[in-house]
Amino acid sequence: MTAEQRLFALPRFAHETAAYRPGLERTTALLAALGDPHRAFRTIHVAGTNGKGSTASLTASIADAAGLVVGLHTSPHLVSVRERMRVGGVPASADWLEAAVERLAPVLDEIGPSFFEATVALSLLYFAERGVDLAVVEVGLGGRLDATNLVEPAVSVVTHVGLDHTDLLGETVEEIGREKAGIARPGVPLLHAVTGPAAAAVEAEAERRGAPVEAVRQTCTAEVAEASPLRVRLATPVADYGALAVGLPGAHQAWNAALAVRAAELAVPGLAPEAVRLGLAEVVARSGLHGRGEAMADGRIVLDVAHNA
Fold first, then answer.
1. Integer Cα distance of 201 and 169 in angstroms
2. Which of 102, 123, 129, 260 has CA 20 to 30 A from 5's CA?
3. pLDDT at position 12, please?
């Protein structure tokens, strides 16, 4: 049995009782058995209903362009589970995953984690072993009780909030916003681009947890200068970047780009404007992101993994 087959044998989907068991106990035990690898690097933690994968990838790409060794954990994967654990946009090797799962097998048997919990632990182990300077970690579902919520972030991000997974996270955007803001940490900046009633809920929960909050729609400008290919006129409290190319299609990426730039400004000392420019433009190559309005070679087929509006 291969490493991926062993992982796929674990409970995999949120609608399965064994796969979605809220709580951090199992992931805590997994990480402890691995020597707490998540404490070896700085992290940017990204939650949200929509846009968190794009925002995480844009952030990682900017940090990569700034010369950092960057780990990126996203989910789900498209072809191989190794896509969930990337450094410099490149997935972990098959050999590394085989050895890591073999080493982890007794712990998996003892703790009985879900597929997601196991892959989060493996991602964090991979980043520690690769000696990353910074990891960008995307939340799987919700935030407060998500397996990723053991990282110790330098910056927390909530992208957008909508009605999704209402059976697990709450029936209103306010309830869901509070769950997502559960990634907030005392003294750690929390950025968000949330609108409507959910914005107040996110801010109130973050402030309750002691996190300073920044609503980027109030502190930044992100105007679409050109729709296709996308160019965004971007200004933050740190710099006016002018019109920047964004290597992903769709006007909805403008605020994702703003969030990514602000997160990078806070987490990467001395961030240069050139790193912002290259990181946004070269996000696919630098982060390994796929499936966001991605046109195939002949241009007649477009792949997009969005599952809600």
1. 14
2. 129
3. 83
